[in-house]
Write a sequence for this structure.
């Protein structure tokens, strides 16, 4: 049975100014909504440069804020007005004073439906993705039942860990969303760059295949210090086919309508969820 | 640190005559060894047609035998004489009278080092891969420490389940070997065929990426009743790059030397095993 949903994925360049990035993100979300998007997804930590490269610096903790907070309020207004869902990646400072790399999912009434805190926190190479200095790891996968689809929210480095894709699917996810900040370091560009770039796409497409779900990756673009972010935001279907893919280096909104009916169609022929025999569990 | 190992993968057509298939398998293994293969891999259930399609029939249980048994003895002689490892997929009848889809790993002294019993047993579509009628599921992943490499043995449908790839890797596998019997049913050929064919490759390559290991798939070729097996045996590296790929429809031996040193090199840059946070466990 067909059930269409339209995604709006924002591939953007981010500056060092949170206010500027918020205004830009809101504007791009409006563009997506104008073209029919029902679920809008922003890239990882879009309110700032990706600060987890270069010397570790306590000043970056100033970028963190509470959830709900001003950013979710701004997107909440937009969501409520347009009856859309917004998937918003933020640097969270919790009430208890801990810091997380977090997604807030904002529902069609403008409320924060809940949060997902990134489980897999990279620490290598030491000067490029040193996230363990800034973020506590989360411990639970989360899915959000919206009027348009049940979405599973994961973040960037989670991409390389099939366990969390499986867990979100088992919880009911029909689409796995990966807000991302990934690119090449100078060393990578001159050695394994092309292989790593392809691997990043293959592993995400495979999570879609193994779970019979859609996958959407939303990356930033631009050069920040030594990291060149590689864009290439994309959507793949439950067979792992890439339905749409953005450029390596330009800001773009991806607007795509997908048919969730493919999920059940595939599960009748390849019932991986039904026939899996190994449990995945929080460590 | 480089450590080379040479694989010999036998992509073959199988007849209904076990004796003929045994002779052919031995001959092809000798061809691989003559070209330098140190680990020789046969396709899934190569001693017979893939009998799990069409009407279920008790007569096929006659194809099962004990391990060790005559087939492992024949390959054991070859292995001992040439100091090679043979990965041999067999229909096993256990001492307790249970039936399994099993790999016997034969070591360089000709001995059966141990067995792996296929964990994921397909039951759909009912007339094409009705393995649950014939096989009990196994319950444990296995790896085998040979003089050339530590190999993890998985079988066909296991390909779609990242959990078992992870478990074998955690046990020490450097190469995941997937003896296989997969192809298109008439319905698939006329609908999702190309997507399924590509998905089969993507998911296996991704297991290599996510675990930083090599992957080798060894399929049969030929038409048997309504199933057209699609060959395409291949080897991919820890970055998911396909190093070699056989044809869709011809018998071929793949002989390839791979450098296991790439595994540790990759794990220094992308330490997925070290940074994973979710356990996989027998259900």
């Amino acid at each position: 049975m067909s059930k269409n949903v339209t995604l709006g994925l924002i591939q953007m360049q981010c500056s060092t100014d949170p206010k500027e990035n918020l205004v830009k993100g809101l504007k791009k979300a409006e563009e997506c909504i104008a073209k029919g998007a029902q679920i809008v997804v922003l890239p990882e930590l879009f309110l700032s440069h990706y600060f987890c490269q270069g010397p570790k610096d306590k000043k970056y903790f100033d970028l963190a804020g509470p959830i709900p907070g001003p950013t979710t309020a701004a997107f909440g207004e937009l969501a409520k007005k347009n009856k859309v869902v917004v998937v918003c990646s933020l640097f969270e400072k919790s009430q208890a004073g801990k810091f997380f790399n977090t997604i807030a999912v904002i529902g069609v009434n403008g409320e924060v439906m809940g949060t997902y805190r990134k489980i897999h926190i990279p620490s290598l190479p030491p000067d490029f993705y040193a996230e363990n200095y800034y973020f506590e790891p989360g411990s639970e996968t989360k899915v959000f039942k919206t009027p348009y689809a049940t979405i599973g929210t994961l973040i960037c480095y989670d991409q390389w860990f099939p366990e969390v894709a499986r867990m979100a699917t088992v919880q009911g996810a029909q689409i796995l969303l990966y807000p991302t900040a990934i690119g090449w370091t100078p060393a990578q560009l001159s050695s394994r760059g092309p292989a790593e770039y392809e691997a990043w796409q293959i592993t995400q497409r495979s999570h879609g295949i193994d779970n019979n779900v859609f996958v959407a990756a939303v990356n930033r673009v631009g050069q920040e210090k030594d990291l060149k972010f590689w864009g290439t935001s994309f959507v793949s279907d439950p067979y792992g086919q890439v339905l749409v893919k953005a450029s390596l280096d330009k800001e773009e909104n991806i607007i795509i309508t997908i048919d969730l009916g493919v999920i059940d169609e595939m599960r009748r022929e390849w019932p991986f969820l039904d026939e899996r025999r190994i449990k995945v569990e929080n460590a």
Observations:
- The longest strand of chain B covers residues 85-93.
- Residues 193-211 of chain B form the longest helix (19 residues).
- Chain B has a mean pLDDT of 96.
